[in-house]
Amino acid sequence: MANPTQPCWNYYLLYKTRHAIVEGRKFSRTTGAGKGGNRVKMVSVMTIVVIISFVRSAVVGEAVDCSTVTALLSACSSFIINGAPDPLPLSPCCVAITTLNNLGTDSSQSRQVVCKCLMELITNYNQNATAIATLPGFCGVSLGFTIDPNTDCEYIS
Prior knowledge:
Elements: H1 7-22, H2 39-59, H3 66-73, H4 77-82, H5 92-103, H6 108-124, H7 129-139
Helix pairs in contact: 1-2, 2-5, 5-7, 6-7
GO biological process, one term: lipid transport
GO molecular function: lipid binding
Protein name: Non-specific lipid-transfer protein 14
């Protein structure tokens, strides 16, 4: 297993958490998927840790890119894929959406990149476009643009 401070560790945790949630199981680093323990809290903690690691990398000076946007949205995979449960403020999903909003506030170029990445996601995952578009509203966040295929990201300031 890699050192938790190495970047690949973050991707491993993201992968395990996302796939365990998609399969209807809970993932815990200490107990594993499907075993006993306080899995729901562990999944929430692990998701927040992954989100913080992506925020830290973006804040340190790296440009916002689509892999960061996709990784943040993976915290909402249960809602995006199944349409339930609705994300609540302070849930890992809403923390990710708030983080996504904060990533785009440093410049209009960052907000345009976030917009373009979201437009690409709703184009590629058309069957889940409505769920993706409703996330900011559930979380009480205004991204400054509408998540809609007709949105022209070039005009976002």
